[in-house]
């Protein structure tokens, strides 16, 4: 069984940088992108889907890995005939996209890593600050296991920021998760160490963080920029907002970043196409 469900396409545009794939994070669904979709779909082919956290199926440990999610993202993109897309990965999906891009670089023209973190646990011996110590994460997981609903009602307002309408929408999505799936995916995310996955990323990246995000601080973005040495380029953009879901509370700021990324990706795609054509012609100016 795949993790993804309810895949759909919106808008126009063709392959290459004309395609945008939107991958939401933990607890959410594709409605997370509703405030961005009208503008993005006007000139681009947009692919949306849900990570299906709602039903308990197989319990195999290998199901709950970033690698499994990455393989399923690749399968979705293959199914939709995507090549060279701009992929926006939010929260957990940012690291999923990083892993997938290393496994199948032909699918990715540019990565937008939104509110990303490769490791939430602090590592004092390495000087790494992820934002959480082990005791606080263990307490969070215990609270989820004891009463998922109570945990959601405490967690979501902090994650959503100051917008009450965003809180209500997110709570509904979080509460639709199957309790066992919610716990196991949270364990996968918050106890992970995916820093090594950053080393293999070759695609150009834009790391977008929120200035006041309790889950993924701007310092994590700077760590990611320093770690992704193979990437064609890495830009860090900090949105002046609160919370872990800028799609909901700062959509215009995020949209401005995405439009700039899409323009650059389109220009790069045109340059690659021109270079390929010139190489095919043996470097001879056939118009002369």
Describe this structure in words.
With 288 residues, the chain is α/β, with parallel strands linked by helices. The protein has one domain: Alpha/Beta hydrolase fold, catalytic domain (Rossmann fold, 3-Layer(aba) Sandwich). It has eleven helices and seven strands. The protein has a seven-stranded mixed β-sheet, sandwiched between helices. Strand 6, helix 9 and strand 7 form a beta-alpha-beta unit. Helix 2 crosses helix 3, helix 4 packs across helix 5 and helix 4 runs antiparallel to helix 7. The longest helix has 30 residues. The N and C termini lie far apart (56 Å). The model has no long low-confidence stretch (mean pLDDT 91). GO terms for molecular function: hydrolase activity. This is Alpha/beta-Hydrolases superfamily protein. Belongs to the AB hydrolase superfamily. Keywords: Hydrolase. InterPro entries: AB_hydrolase_1, AB_hydrolase_fold.
């Amino acid at each position: 069984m795949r993790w993804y469900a309810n895949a759909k396409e919106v808008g126009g545009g063709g392959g290459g940088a004309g395609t945008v794939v939107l991958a939401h994070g933990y607890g959410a669904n594709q409605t997370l992108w509703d405030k961005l979709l009208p503008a993005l779909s006007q000139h681009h082919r947009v692919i949306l889907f849900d990570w299906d956290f709602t039903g308990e199926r197989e319990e195999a440990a290998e199901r709950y890995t970033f690698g499994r999610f990455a393989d399923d993202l690749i399968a979705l993109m293959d199914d939709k005939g995507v090549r060279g897309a701009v992929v926006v990965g939010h929260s957990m999906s940012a690291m999923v996209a990083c892993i997938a891009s290393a496994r199948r670089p032909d699918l990715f023209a540019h990565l937008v890593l939104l509110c990303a973190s490769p490791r939430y646990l602090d590592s004092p011996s390495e000087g790494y600050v992820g934002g959480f110590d082990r005791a606080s994460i263990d307490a969070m997981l215990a609270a989820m296991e004891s009463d998922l609903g109570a945990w959601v009602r405490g967690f979501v307002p902090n994650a959503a920021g100051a917008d009450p309408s965003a809180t209500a929408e997110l709570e509904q999505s979080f509460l639709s998760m199957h309790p066992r799936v919610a716990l196991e995916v949270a364990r996968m995310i918050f106890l992970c160490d995916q820093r090594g996955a950053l080393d293999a990323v070759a695609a150009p990246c834009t790391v977008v963080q929120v200035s006041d995000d309790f889950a993924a601080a701007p310092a994590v973005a700077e760590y990611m920029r320093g770690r992704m040495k193979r990437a064609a380029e890495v830009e860090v953009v900090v949105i002046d907002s609160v919370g872990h879901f800028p799609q909901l509370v700062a959509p215009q700021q995020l949209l401005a970043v995405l439009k700039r990324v899409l323009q650059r990706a389109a220009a790069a795609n045109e340059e690659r196409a021109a270079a390929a054509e010139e190489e095919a012609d043996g470097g001879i100016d056939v118009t002369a």
